[in-house]
Recover the amino acids of this structure.
């Protein structure tokens, strides 16, 4: 009888441990979140590092200004084809999951006639995807 009680105690302990730690095993890693300030011809920070196959959320904080800007990330090899116009004085949220390790450029695609593009003026950045 004593062996049965001990077995029940051990099974109950195992069940409790299983139930306590189960939620941690069911959830994937947390979302990687970054805020990027966007102004006239800059992204700050202009380099971020993220983990491959982990959800990523970028909050693009656009300062007030009359010059139109956008966020462009085009890489057909990875499926990262993102284009968002950024309205003055707003926050634009972009969510994606990087599937390939490497460095990927983002930039503003805008260009006024007879002037350098925003990209040429330095409105560029890098997303570095690591293991």
């Amino acid at each position: 009888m004593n062996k049965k009680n001990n077995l029940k105690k051990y099974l109950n302990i195992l069940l409790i441990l299983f139930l306590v730690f189960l939620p941690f095993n069911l959830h994937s890693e947390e979302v990687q979140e970054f805020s990027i300030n966007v102004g006239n011809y800059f992204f700050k920070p202009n380099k971020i590092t993220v983990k491959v196959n982990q959800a990523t959320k970028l909050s693009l904080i656009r300062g007030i200004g009359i010059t139109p800007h956008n966020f462009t990330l085009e890489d057909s090899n990875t499926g990262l084809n993102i284009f968002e116009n950024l309205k003055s004085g707003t926050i634009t949220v972009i969510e994606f999951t990087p599937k390939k390790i490497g460095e990927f450029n983002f930039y503003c695609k805008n260009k006024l006639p007879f002037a350098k593009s925003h990209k040429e003026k330095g409105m560029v950045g890098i997303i570095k995807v690591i293991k």
Strands lie at 32-39, 42-44, 47-51, 56-62, 69-75, 80-86, 91-96, 102-107, 124-130. Residues 2-26 form the longest helix (25 residues). The longest strand covers residues 32-39. The helical segments are 2-26.
